[in-house]
Write a structure and sequence with these properties.
The two termini are 41 Å apart. Helix 3 (79-93) packs parallel to helix 5, helix 8 crosses helix 9 (243-252) and helix 12 (304-316) crosses helix 14. Strands 2-5-6-1-7 form a five-stranded parallel sheet, sandwiched between helices. A two-stranded antiparallel ribbon has the order 3-4. It folds into three domains: 16-217, Rossmann fold (3-Layer(aba) Sandwich); 229-295, Orthogonal Bundle (Helicase, Ruva Protein, domain 3), CATH 1.10.8; 302-377, Orthogonal Bundle (Arc Repressor Mutant, subunit A). It is an alpha/beta fold. The longest helix has 25 residues, at 277-301. It is globular, with a radius of gyration of 23 Å. Helix 6 (172-181) links the parallel strand 5 (154-159) and strand 6. It has helices spanning 23-35, 49-63, 79-93, 99-108, 133-148, 172-181, 195-203, 223-236, 243-252, 257-269, 277-301, 304-316, 325-330, 336-348, 368-376; strands at 39-42, 67-72, 114-117, 124-127, 154-159, 186-191, 214-217, 240-241, 274-275, 352-355, 362-365. The structure holds adenosine-5'-triphosphate (ATP) and magnesium ion. The site of magnesium ion has 4 residues, from helix 2.
Length: 377
């Protein structure tokens, strides 16, 4: 029997019907693109930045005749890799049998590309001839300008953009900034999973990208909206789910998109006609069990004091004041300075995040499953 498609996506975007909300954010990004404004998308990890870009691209390509090019530069290690990715992404957008594809192919020949096929996706991958840094700089400029001069609206999304800080070519930021600001028909969406590095690139007054983009902060999907989405995905497929179970899922995963999606995916895959609170509890236990070895690995990465602090944060769930006397005493965390150092280490290691975009800012454990597990240990 063919396995039923699971409507709760935990990897790549699968179309608007599986995408929850983000209506105003989608509209805002489309407005930015249409105004030619470059934008940087910020959020804590696993909240849905990449998904939102794909959702926006889906709408832009279907409705607005816009050329949308997405590149994820996490695997790149140097400018040469970036250039090849850029060339590959552009090449894959225009099939060589169409007018612009032919033009592009002719244009790209000057860089003496080698074309191979990706083993997994079987998409063509371009590798341009080795070139000096100066020549590479020119190549990037040519590639951007080629598209910009076609009288088309073009939008580039560069995901995991903080990766450019790892390149040995230390002038990458300046170089990209220079090319980007000369384009007329092209806008950019930058995003990345490392918030600290992304803020460094875009919000530090000494850096080339400072004040060059509008900032957009992505927040949690509201509980009521997520609840409605969960309910509709179950009922559309003739499965019942009790409000009590939905409340439990949203609370247990704190509506942190990836964790909520993952939970619902597991529950849905049980293929039950009725999903009540007992089933949701079973899924929670199952998830903690399958992740336990990862939790122990986390523990090995931390000092004893950091682990104790992490557990204390998990127990209070939202920590407003790390140096509050009660918090330190109740959890035997030592001195305020030890806690301060521990908080810095946990933030750097991305075990916790700081949400400052609410009235009462707080710290919270990143991984919601780890948080629930720590509460029991
Ligand atoms: N609005 C949404 N509705 C349903 N699923 C979503 C939504 N947004 C994101 N997802 C799914 O949640 C998961 C995490 O989202 P995504 O990868 O977009 O987060 P991210 O912010 O880019 O994470 P990272 O910071 O690690 O790059 C993905 O599986 C994605 O498909
Ligand atoms: Mg992402």
């Amino acid at each position: 029997m063919k396995k039923e498609f699971n409507p709760f996506i935990t990897s790549l975007y699968e179309g608007p019907e599986h995408f929850c909300d983000r209506k105003s954010e989608t509209q805002q990004l489309i407005d930015y693109v249409e105004n030619g404004t470059n934008v940087t998308l910020f959020s804590i990890r696993r909240l849905g930045k990449t998904g939102l870009i794909q959702h926006v691209f889906n709408q832009l390509t279907e409705e607005k005749d816009t050329i949308c090019i997405y590149i994820d530069i996490l695997p790149t290690q140097k400018l040469e890799d970036f250039t090849n990715q850029l060339a590959t992404a552009i090449y894959n957008i225009f099939p060589p049998n169409k007018r612009l594809g032919k033009k592009l192919l002719a244009f790209i020949q000057q860089f003496r590309p080698t074309i191979s096929f990706d083993e997994l996706s079987s998409n063509p991958t371009l590798s341009l001839a080795k070139a000096s840094p100066i020549q590479q700089n020119k190549t990037i400029n040519y590639l951007f300008n080629f598209l910009d001069s076609q009288n088309l609206k073009v939008v580039f999304a560069i995901d995991e953009f903080q990766q450019i800080l790892e390149y040995p070519e230390k002038n990458t930021e300046a170089l990209l900034r220079t090319h980007i600001q000369q384009l007329k028909n092209t806008s950019f969406i930058f995003c990345g999973s490392n918030q600290k590095m992304m803020h460094e690139i875009f919000n530090s007054s000494k850096r080339p990208f400072f004040a060059s983009c509008s900032n957009m902060q992505l927040d949690f999907i509201p509980t009521t909206v997520y609840s409605e989405f969960i309910n509709s995905k179950f009922t559309e497929r003739k499965k019942a789910i009790t409000p009590e179970s939905i409340d439990f899922i949203c609370e247990w995963t704190k509506c942190h998109t990836f964790y909520t999606q993952f939970f619902c995916n597991v529950l849905f895959s049980k293929n039950l006609k009725h999903n009540d609170i007992k089933d949701a509890h079973e899924v929670a236990i199952h998830i903690l069990k399958i992740n336990e070895s990862i939790f122990y690995q986390y523990r090995n990465l931390l000092s004893e004091a950091q682990w104790r602090l992490l557990r204390a944060i998990a127990k209070v769930e939202k920590l407003h004041q790390p140096n509050a006397k009660d918090f330190i005493q109740n959890h035997s965390l030592g001195t305020p300075s030890l806690v301060t150092r521990g908080m810095d280490a946990l933030l750097t290691k991305e075990m916790i995040f700081h949400n400052s975009s609410v009235e009462k800012p707080y710290y919270e454990v990143y991984d919601k499953f780890l948080m629930r597990w720590l509460q029991q240990h």
